[in-house]
Amino acid sequence: MRARRLATLVVAAIALSGCAANGDPAATTPATGPTPSEAPLIPEPSALPSALPSDVLAGEMQDLAKLAERLAQQLPVQRRPAPVRVAGSSSQWQPGAAYRGVFADPDIVRFRGRWYAYATNTSHLRLPTLTSRDLVTWTPLSDGSGRRIDPIETAGWVRSRDGGRDLWAPGVDKVGNGWTAAYAAPAGTQGGERHNCIGLTRGPSPAGPFRPVGDPICYGEAQLGVIDPDVFVDEHGVAWLLWKFSGVVHRRPAGLFIRQLNADGTGFADGSQTRELLTLDRPWEGITIENPSMVQFRGVTYLFYSGNSWERADYATGYAICAGPQGPCVRQNHGEPLLSTASTGRLGPGGASAFVDHKSLRLIYHAWDRVGHMRRLHIASLWQRDDGTLEVIDPG
Question: Mind listing the GO biological process terms from this record (predicted)?
Answer without folding.
Answer: carbohydrate metabolic process
